[in-house]
Amino acid sequence: MNKTLKPLFACLFSGLICTGAAAAEPQVINIKTDGSSMVMSVTSDGEVLFHHFGGRIDDATPVTGIKSYRRTDHGTDNLAYSTMGGRNFREPALRVTHADGDMNTELRYVSHTTRTLADTNVTRTVIKLTDTNQALDVELFYTAYAKENVITTHAVIRNREKGSIVLHSFYSSSLPVKARSYLLTHLYGAWARESQVDHTLLTHGSKSIESRKQVRTTHTENPAFMITLDSESFDENYGEVIAGALAWSGNFRLNFEVDEFNVLNILAGANPYASDYTLGAGESFTTPEMIYTYSSEGAGGASRHLHDWARNYGVWHGHTYAPTLLNSWEGAYFTFDAKTLTEMIDDAADMGLEMFVLDDGWFGNKYPRNDSNAGLGDWQVNAKKLPEGIDYIASYAHQKGMKFGIWIEPEMANTTSELYEKHPDWVLKASERDVVLGRGGTQVVLDLANPAVQDFVFGVVDNLMTSYPEIDYIKWDANMSVQNHGSQYLTKDNQSHMYIEFHRGFEKICQRIRAKYPDLTIQACASGGGRANYGVLPYFDEFWVSDNTDALQRVYMQWGTSYFFPAIAMASHISAAPNHQTFRTIPLKYRIDVAMSGRLGMEIQPKNMTEEEKALCKNAIAEYKTIRPVVQLGDIYRLLSPYDKQGVASLMYVAPEKDKAVFYWWKTEHFCNQHLPRVKMAGLCADKQYR
Ligand code: GLA
Q1: In this structure, are residues 27 and 40 in contact, taking their beta carbons and an 8 Å threshold?
Q2: pLDDT value at position 73?
Q3: Measuring from atom 7 of ligand 1, which residue has the nearest CA?
Q4: How far apart are CA 235 and CA 303, in angstroms?
Q5: pLDDT value at residue 2
Q6: 291 forms bridges with which residues in the sheet?
Q7: Nearest CA among 176, 127, 161, 220 for reference residue 481
Q8: What SS3 state is found at 197?
Q9: Hey, what's the torsion of the CAs at 591, 596, 599, 604, to 10 degrees?
Q10: CA angle at 173 for the pair 235 and 509, rounded to the nearest 5°
Q11: C-alpha to C-alpha distance for 413 and 427, rounded to whole angstroms
């Protein structure tokens, strides 16, 4: 794990490469980015061992002649993809019951290839493995992004056996790491308190982070983490850090197991919980992608790599400046008519905002959406509230030089809806049980495993876009977790496929939408920050960080979010005082300064603002437009963490050319005669003069 260990990679897992004096020199697989390497080797009996993920190694010629002391029944070597069977006593990446009942899988090397893709920044290595006894193949895909120093990986499991096999676990990757100590940094939280930062020193045994909520998977935990190596303290600028993020928005699990030899094995993938997956003869199973980066410049370096990668490959429109906007939710909630909205548009245009978004409440006729308890599923304009139609509001915004966006929650229904009356079989539900109801006492989740439902959900977007081509932006919400564990579409033997198939259905819908509407801007919202992950971001432009718009609490939430996600994807809005969630009164300047560190927007009734407040916002919005390129495309340097409790939080964004930077400094508490710490800037050029 150390940059200086150039050719001697065998030292990292000393003695693991050669299995005896007679062993031939092992074949080496070295997957490289500009600044990092993943090194594996093939033993004489065909095992693929993992040796190194860290600084780049150009010549990975192994040291030969070292005899293994661990190839005994005390434990396994560090397999590149661990399985249940043989000497592996750790939790495996892959656990299978084969067609004949055999519970073991022992993978051996078949071949590997490396090729550069059309995008010459990207290299793909595929390692083919097969079981020693069963007709089961596994392909490990490693995609290396040179400039961003990111390596992503997934596995494809192929069943060539005569009958069906059952996959009990099917992780995307297992990564063995060897260091003196491992400090795990990850996000935890709750609704309205998302992305809190937690640091935990790993001890022997396992620590796991997971979601079983299926839809709003990132309120409580996020499938992203950092591991600081060889240090018990977290550092923004120094030291070695491995960061990972799973590209999966369904149930996930990350498991960190430190064994008796102090090797950390990281498993990351879709959660195997209640998800046994039967794979018929001839079928294959593709795991989600796991994204890894290595930094020798502390956590800050890891975040910058991930942000670069996200803007280039992981977020839809990662280089298009997100527009400033006024969202109607906290300003109008469910109570509005065309006049309310056009007046909001007038005020938004006066303040210089670039888009107006009509949130919840615009649809449903038989069951009007006047509250959260009715109407979901019936995506027709409510004729009573908006007899002039959506096109009238959209055109009004366009006439004012603004874009227009609209809220939908297409994966959901209320039982009080025409959709549910017509298709009660379209909702997730165990066949003989009463349906468990969510928000408003009537909400249910649609069964995205069902292709007819996929067509319906795609149709919600497609019909809106066809009927109202003036729509520029969609806020896609999802306000219920899966509380009904059953699919009315899947067969009785395949009920445990539901979690995987729901998310695959979701991805298929997203792919269809993106194929037809590449220019549409889409926000991922799931009761706030329930969908902040790289499973959705390849199809979405941004996510709503939290339903909590309190600026002080946002400092903490946006700080945690910034570890893994770039500011361009982080929607951050100025809202009213007292705040609607915390009832705290915070000066407008502070609310502006916090919102300006992400994608700036407003979530307020402008009619209730004073002229001075509007003027201050107008000024800030104009200023934001000048700094937007640096905020949304620049490199982040976190200077002083709010979690360090020094009374201040501070960060900056620096343009890649280092000719411009934006510096933020927020007080996080206030006491009399409090001496606040100095903040050292970072990321600037020592030989430049900044004004
Ligand atoms: C969720 C979202 C909010 C808002 C409401 C509307 O809670 O997170 O921003 O859109 O739904 O019902």
Answers
A1: no
A2: 56
A3: 527
A4: 12
A5: 38
A6: 152, 245
A7: 220
A8: strand
A9: 30
A10: 100
A11: 8
- pLDDT per residue as tens digits for the range 12-62: 443 333 333 344 566 999 999 999 999 999 998 999 999 999 999 998 876
The secondary structure of 329-343 as a DSSP string is HHHHTT---HHHHHH
Three-class DSSP labels, 163-175? CCEEEEEECCEEE
Show the ligand 1 pocket: residues with CB < 6 angstroms: 329, 359-360, 372, 407, 477, 479, 525, 527-528, 544, 547
Residue 422 near residue 382 (C-beta atoms within 8 A): no
What is the per-residue pLDDT for 67? 54
- Give the other-Cβ count within 10 Å of 627's Cβ: 17
Residue with token string 């909630």: 333
User: Which of 372, 547, 550, 572 for a ligand 1 pocket mutation test, highest count of atoms within 8 Å of Cβ?
Assistant: 547
CA-wise closest residue to 593 among 574, 613, 565: 574
User: Is residue 265 helix, strand or coil?
Assistant: strand
Q: How far is the CA of 313 from the centre of ligand 1 (A)?
A: 28
Query: Among 325, 329, 407, 548, which is best to mutate for testing ligand 1, by the most ligand atoms less than 8 A from CB?
Result: 329
User: What per-residue string of b and e applies to 646-671 under the rule 16 or more CB within 10 Å gives b?
Assistant: bbbbbbbbbbeeeeebbebebebeee
465 three-state secondary structure = helix
DSSP H or E segment with residue 41: strand 36-42
Cα–Cα distance measured from residue 499 to residue 486, given in angstroms and rounded to the nearest whole number: 9
Cα R_g (the chain), whole angstroms: 26
Distances from the Cα of 233 to the Cαs of 33, 230, 530, 563, in angstroms?
Answer: 27, 9, 29, 16
Cα of 388 vs centre of ligand 1, distance in Å, is 24
pLDDT of residue 86: 83
Give pLDDT, residue 60. Answer: 82
pLDDT value for 66? 55
- Distance (Å) from CA 563 to ligand 1 centroid: 25
Which contacts qualify for 428-437: CB closer than 8 Å, 24 or more apart? 428/482, 428/484, 428/485, 428/486, 428/487, 428/488, 428/498, 428/502, 429/484, 429/486, 429/488, 430/484, 430/485, 430/486, 430/495, 431/486, 431/488, 431/492, 433/484, 433/486, 435/484, 436/483, 436/484
Pairing of the two strands 355-358 and 412-414:
unpaired
Task: State the residue for tokens 């008519």.
Answer: 337
Q: Which atom of ligand 1 is nearest to the CA of 528?
A: 8
| The two three-digit tokens of residue 626, written as one number | 């000048």
SS3 555: helix
Phi, psi of 174 (to 5 degrees): -125, 125
The residues of the chain scoring below 70 in pLDDT are 1-26, 62-76
CA dihedral sign of residues 192, 254, 508, 309: positive
Query: What DSSP designation does 313 have?
Result: I
Report d(CA 137, CA 56) in Å as an integer.
30
**pLDDT given at position 5:** 36
| Structure tokens belonging to residue 165 | 């096999």
pLDDT at 65: 61
Helix (H, G, I), strand (E, B) or coil at 454: helix
Q: Look-up: residue for tokens 């499973």?
A: 535
- CA 450 vs CA 36, 455, 600: distances in Å: 42, 9, 37
Place of tokens 């059953």: 486
pLDDT for residue 77: 72
**DSSP-assigned beta bridge partners for residue 156:** 139, 286
Two structure tokens written together for 589: 């300047």
Residue 282, phi-psi category: left (phi > 0), alpha (psi -120 to 50), beta (remainder): left
Give the Å distance between the CA of 546 and the centre of ligand 1: 10
Atom of ligand 1 nearest to the CA of 359: 10
Residue 147 phi/psi, 5-degree rounding, is -65, -35
**Beta carbons of 648 and 627 less than 8 angstroms apart:** no
